[in-house]
Amino acid sequence: MSGNLTDGVRGGAGGRFLEIACDESGSDGENLTGGNTDVFAHASVSLSVTSAAAAVREIRDRIRSPAEEYKANHLLREKHRAVLEWLLVPEGPIHGQARVHLMEKSFFVVDRTAGLLLGDPAAAVVLFREGRRTFGEEGWRAFLEAANRLLRVRNNGEPGAPVEGFYDTVDALRQAHPHTDAGRVLARLGATRSRAVSYRAGFLDGPPLIPVLNPLLPAIVRTSALWSGDGREVRLVHDRQNMLTPDRIAWIGEAARRAGVALAGLRLVVAREDARVQVADFLAGIARKIASDELNGRGDRELTALLRPYVDPASVWGDTRSLALLAAPAAPVTGPAVKRSRAR
Fold it and tell me: Is pTM beyond 0.85 here?
């Protein structure tokens, strides 16, 4: 491997590649309906180490907190709003060189449930957009929690309890709302018990390598696709995560190759030792908070507009109102050594 190892774009035997630094915010494992957050964010930046370090220094100089390690919550405090805006504005240090992939956790649960049991993404969209209105807040929450328990690997009760609980909930809601679009999707789900039993039986030999409900792994594959759209080979630098074992990193590489993504590797680092990952951590935390506020009807118009150019239009998001505000049409992203003048 040759080239300047600090500029984010390196030379290799197969040609030049782009090195992208990543981090996430909002990870609650597989507990997507009862965790601390309702949005998962995976951010990525194409900055040189020098540029990222300068941005981190500037943030520290402006905020002047005694904390050894700065996090997104430092920038999200109202008294530091000017620093947050400086980071995101078009004239700021990351504009055009950063992206964030968002996942609305409730929709992710519905999407994965419909995918596993029905193999029909369109059914997930119908159920998600009609479910709360049809079943009411209590009924909708009951469905989401039952689906989450069914799909998650961990089980604290009887082995068959997640299956029984899910189909009891589906049957009760279906019978209460039989002639509705959401009720018709539940009728289809009610006929899939054998698939659910087979899915849970697969855990008897141990947990699966790739948990259906963990959002990090597919988010990394999507991030790779975002940055390799022009055919450039991409290598990722990611904050250390227990989920990112060697076997799962190998799966990410294979999944990327199957999708036609030019992902050449993934390297784990300690965030505080790589300024680029620190900047990605800032963006992930900021994006998660802004997106969650917008999702829940308490969005800040100015901050949402500032975040919009960074958000992946292919984010996993079911709420149409907030998505229209959060995600701009696809826009080009640039590396520190290669500025692209047109969309890919």
Answer: yes
